[in-house]
Amino acid sequence: MHARQRRWTALTLGLVLLAGGGLAGSLSNSASAQATYEIEPRAPEYLYARTCGYCHGHNIAPIIRGRNLPPAVISSIVRSGMGAMPAFKPTEITDTELEALSEWISQSEADPEEHGQ
Ligand code: HEC
Q1: pLDDT of residue 71 exceeding 70
Q2: Residue 73 Cα, ligand 1 centroid: separation in angstroms?
Q3: What percent of the chain has pLDDT over 70?
Q4: Which mutation among 55, 75, 114 tests ligand 1's pocket best, with the greatest number of atoms within 8 A of CB?
Q5: How confident is the model at residue 40 (pLDDT cuts 50, 70, 90)?
Q6: Which of 36, 70, 79, 112 is 20 to 30 A from 17, alpha carbon to alpha carbon?
Q7: Residue 13 CB coordination number (10 Å)
Q8: How far apart are CA 116 and CA 11, in angstroms?
Q9: Distance between Cα 92 and ligand 1 center (Å)
Q10: Distance CA 60, CA 54 (A)
Q11: Does any ligand 1 atom lie closer than 6 A to the CB of residue 83?
Q12: Distance from CA of residue 89 to its chain's centroid?
């Protein structure tokens, strides 16, 4: 093979490898971005207002803030339900979210704007 021809072959091979590496890199980037999005936990205040506060604090269910209820008790009631209260599955509130939510409710001050059952 001519010396000049060999140099071109090496250069072409290098470009092909570069392009392939770039494509694989961008594919794995988008996969990890999606995973991060799915596991991003929602804040306890948000979950309480959107999910629990629908009943608790709005005449439908007992007041649960400002009572120092143990977090483990809150979590177990959320997972199994209680009387008229529905159970919430890990697909609705993840374990990580529930842990933070129960801790937040347990520590939270009573809100004078809320009304119990
Ligand atoms: C559809 C209305 C509704 C929603 C939504 C709801 N609850 Fe309840 N919850 C109730 C009712 C009603 C009771 C009282 C059940 C009983 O005494 O039989 C209750 C009871 C409880 C209790 C026990 C309170 C006590 O004094 O014994 C806790 C703790 C609790 N809920 C936490 C939560 C949390 C945390 C959420 C949000 C993830 C939530 N609940 C969402 C209706 C609801």
Answers
A1: yes
A2: 11
A3: 67
A4: 55
A5: confident
A6: 36
A7: 10
A8: 75
A9: 16
A10: 8
A11: yes
A12: 14
